[in-house]
Amino acid sequence: MDVLQFKTAIWNLQRSIAENANALFSSVAAQNGLTPQQAALLLELAQKGPCRMGDLARTLCLTKTNATPLCKHLEEAGYLTRRRGETDERVVWVTLSPQGKKAATQLETAFEQQIQPLFQPEDTQELELVVDGMRRLDSLLKRMRSVLEHITQEGE
């Protein structure tokens, strides 16, 4: 496989994976009155705890300008709180409210109930192989990114 084929395959797979994961998750989010992005944000906060707005945006592949209204809407709905950093007011911390924690738990439960019947016991090994392959791809892309960043810094 040459570089162009690799790039094309990665772009196409990334888009396809995102579309299919979004489709699986959309119905669960909608059943809970949320968009997929809102649900993903709640689940991210449930998993990691309080986050800085910038870190949350980066994790969810959003710009800060898109993450801000998303968080504002969820705050107005009572799912989370936002507060300025104590030492740096430019930093905004986002935290789940009790209602947000409850919603995240409901999302996890609903997703598991919807998806679990689709899995067979023999799928376990295949799923582990898929996750391992994705980790290996992630590691490769990180190494490539590191090399490119190093080259870019040397050129400046």
Quick structural overview:
This protein has 156 residues and is mainly α. It has helices at 3-31, 36-48, 53-59, 64-76, 98-115, 123-155, and strands spanning 51-52, 80-84, 92-96.
Structure report:
This protein has two domains: 3-118, Winged helix-like DNA-binding domain superfamily/Winged helix DNA-binding domain (Arc Repressor Mutant, subunit A, Orthogonal Bundle), CATH 1.10.10.10; 121-156. The protein is 72% helix and 8% strand. It contains six helices and three strands, in the order H-H-E-H-H-E-E-H-H. It has a three-stranded antiparallel β-sheet. Strand 2 (80-84) and strand 3 (92-96) form a beta hairpin. Helix 2 packs across helix 5 (98-115) and helix 3 crosses helix 4 (64-76). It is flat and about 50 Å long. The chain starts with a helix and ends with a helix.
- Secondary structure class reads mainly alpha
Q: Whole-Å distance between the termini?
A: 31 Å
CATH superfamily of the largest domain: Winged helix-like DNA-binding domain superfamily/Winged helix DNA-binding domain
Shape category: flat
Spans of at least 5 consecutive residues with low confidence: none
From the alpha-carbon coordinates, what is the Rg to the nearest angstrom? 19 Å
Largest sheet: 3 strands, antiparallel
By DSSP (H or I, 4+ residues per run), the number of helices equals 6
- CATH topology term of the largest domain: Arc Repressor Mutant, subunit A
- Identify the CATH class of the largest domain: Mainly Alpha
N-to-C SSE string, H for helix and E for strand: HHEHHEEHH
With strands numbered from the N-terminus, the spatial order across the biggest sheet is 1-3-2
Q: Average pLDDT, to the nearest integer?
A: 90
**Whole-number count of domains:** 2
CATH architecture of the largest domain: Orthogonal Bundle
GO molecular function: DNA-binding transcription factor activity
Organism: uncultured Anaerotruncus sp
Protein name: Transcriptional repressor MprA
Pfam families: MarR
